[in-house]
Amino acid sequence: MSEYEKEIEELLEKLLKKLVESLKQERVSEVEHKVVLVKEVKEIIGKESFEEFINKNSFAVICYYSPRCPACRRYLPVFNNVAKKLTPQKIAFAVLNIKEPRNRDIVLEKEVFVIPTTAIYAKGKEISRKVGYMNEEELMLYIELNRSSNK
Predict the structure, then answer these.
(1) Which of 3, 16, 43, 138 would you call most buried, defined as having the most Cβ atoms within 10 angstroms of its Cβ?
(2) CB of 138 within 8 A of CB of 130?
């Protein structure tokens, strides 16, 4: 075996080790990215659950997210806080994980291509959608503007 072939073999071995470590770290980070929701926020899983939620609640706010998305992980605590504040006003809150296989049909049907996406539903119909992170004040204003224009 030539010196050149030995070098290539060593490089391949190093790359393989790095790849294995990266995959191990990815599995660990999936566990670390577990989403914590407050009791005021429902997790939607599946088309039936989605349809029931938007039709049962006259005014509903849904956050489409992925547990591995950094912006989503920053946004979900804001979403939780707003849900705690506004639930007494008869506003329903839910989250929908776009990576959940049972939610794929909803994501495709609703054309959710960027996350986080916050959608507002009134009487079963989507009336508004905002893409990206919002702070607490922006989210509350967004909800109130859509609620007052839909009374």
Answers:
(1) 138
(2) no
